[in-house]
Design a protein that fits this description.
Number of strands: 12
Pfam family, one: FMN_dh
Distance between the termini: 35 Å
Strand order of the largest sheet: 4-5-6-7-8-9-10-11
Largest sheet: 8 strands, parallel, barrel
Family: Belongs to the FMN-dependent alpha-hydroxy acid dehydrogenase family.
Helix content: 40-55%
Mean pLDDT: 95
Organism: Solanum pinnatisectum
Cofactor: FMN
Bound molecules: flavin mononucleotide, 2-Ketohexanoic acid
Catalytic activity: a (2S)-2-hydroxycarboxylate + O2 = a 2-oxocarboxylate + H2O2; 2-hydroxyoctanoate + O2 = 2-oxooctanoate + H2O2; 2-hydroxyhexanoate + O2 = 2-oxohexanoate + H2O2
């Protein structure tokens, strides 16, 4: 690739060149056969767009409101761990990039900068992501999130234990210090056999956490809870009953259970079960503005972006994060104009054809 990257896939190429192989493998990899990893991308390609012509598109407004927060576009930085392995400034640089683009920043509890450092370094609206951790860890996270102005909790519910990423095992991937755990777990307890990321997870997660425990989480915080990792209508219904404020359709970037479907292919099932009661968000495989458009057409309120943001960070720090988000925003803006949609609310189900519909010869 010559010159400056012109799309987010080219940022991946740049990051692959500058990052040590062990870290690039950690960021890019998926679970086991990586079937789902490929599907997350491929499934978007099977959906086509049904544009409308001769609409006045002289002004395009991509802004939207997510849990009461106005953002410049339906884009959220997905919570991903270990940003200092991509760039020394870590999550602080990522959050500043998100703030510069006026989009919401998801911060993983397994970040390499502390949540306090991220909070004090930028004005971005921030959501904190947690796993079903042991209760004392969750309670500590909640107190600190509230004290530091985080606006929502993302409960990642697809990780009762860690998925198996074979490259990390081969590479003997060593997790960086996750500073938010300081004083909460003994770091010596984390063994160095194989991938110690896995050992970290085993030390902190509570695999017995289940639906009824959401009531407990709600009882210790006033922050809205988004549940991340929903892939079926059944679980979407349970999430509504449990009183969550929003649902994130996600297969964890294909890093947990392999052979789950591409997220975009189960979005409608979830949207139908939710019946508009709470916002439905989606992540997994978003690499183009057209992907965001497709997700919105199938009922998502917004999307989360995982790896492309990390690649931007790895390639160029805060500037790279900003460029990746701006690229996606520009692509979405152009897509909306060319498809005849002035606002995000103008993007409807009739603006896309899914694979099944195409096979039925509607297009
Ligand atoms: C390197 C890496 C680390 C991640 N760490 C977390 C995490 O700590 N918590 C979490 O809920 N999801 C985590 N995720 C999943 C993302 O939040 C998101 O679901 C996924 O990256 C979206 O897919 P995409 O990378 O194709 O955009 C991670 C993903 C990657 C690639
Ligand atoms: C213990 C770190 C978990 C990070 C994670 O969720 C991932 O790598 O997908």
């Amino acid at each position: 690739m010559a010159g400056e990257p012109v799309n987010v896939n080219e940022f991946e190429e740049l990051a692959r060149k500058v990052l040590p192989k062990i870290y690039y493998d950690f960021f890019s990899g998926g679970a086991e056969d990586q079937y789902t990893l490929k599907q997350n991308i491929e499934a978007f390609r099977r959906i086509t767009i049904r544009p409308r012509i001769l609409v006045d598109v002289s002004k395009i407004d991509m802004s939207t409101i997510i849990l009461g927060h106005k953002t410049s576009a339906p884009i959220i930085v997905a919570p991903t761990s270990s940003h200092q392995l991509a760039h020394p400034e870590g999550e602080v640089a990522t959050a500043r990039g998100a703030a510069a683009c006026n989009v919401i920043m998801g911060v993983a509890f397994t970040s390499t900068c502390t949540m306090e450092e991220v909070a004090s370094s930028c004005k971005a609206v921030r959501f904190i992501q947690t796993f079903a951790f042991k209760r004392e860890i969750t309670a500590n996270m909640v107190q600190r999130a509230e004290r530091n102005g985080f606006r929502a909790i993302i409960l990642t519910a697809d990780t009762p234990r860690l998925g198996r990423k074979e490259a990390d095992i081969k590479n003997k991937m060593i997790a960086p210090p996750f500073k938010n755990f300081e004083g909460l777990i003994s770091t010596e307890a984390v063994s160095d056999k194989g991938s110690n990321v896995e050992a970290y997870a085993a030390e902190t997660l509570d695999p017995s956490f289940c639906w009824k425990d959401i009531a407990w989480l709600k009882s210790i915080t006033k922050l809205p809870i988004l549940i991340k990792g929903v892939l079926t209508g059944e679980d979407a219904t349970k999430a509504i009953e449990a009183g969550v404020a929003g649902i994130i359709v996600s297969n964890h970037g294909a890093r947990q259970l392999d052979y789950t479907p591409a997220t975009i292919s189960v979005l409608e099932e979830v949207v139908h079960a939710v019946q508009g009661k709470v916002p439905v968000l989606l992540d997994g495989g978003i690499r183009r503005g057209t992907d965001i458009f497709k997700a919105l057409a199938l009922g998502a309120k917004a999307v989360l972006i995982g790896r492309p943001v990390i690649y931007g960070l790895g390639a160029k720090g805060e500037t790279g994060v900003k460029q990746v988000i701006e690229m996606l925003k520009n692509e979405l803006e152009r897509t909306m104009a060319l498809a005849g949609c002035r606002t995000v609310d103008d993007i409807t189900r009739s603006h896309v054809n899914t694979e099944t519909e195409r096979l039925l010869c509607r297009m």
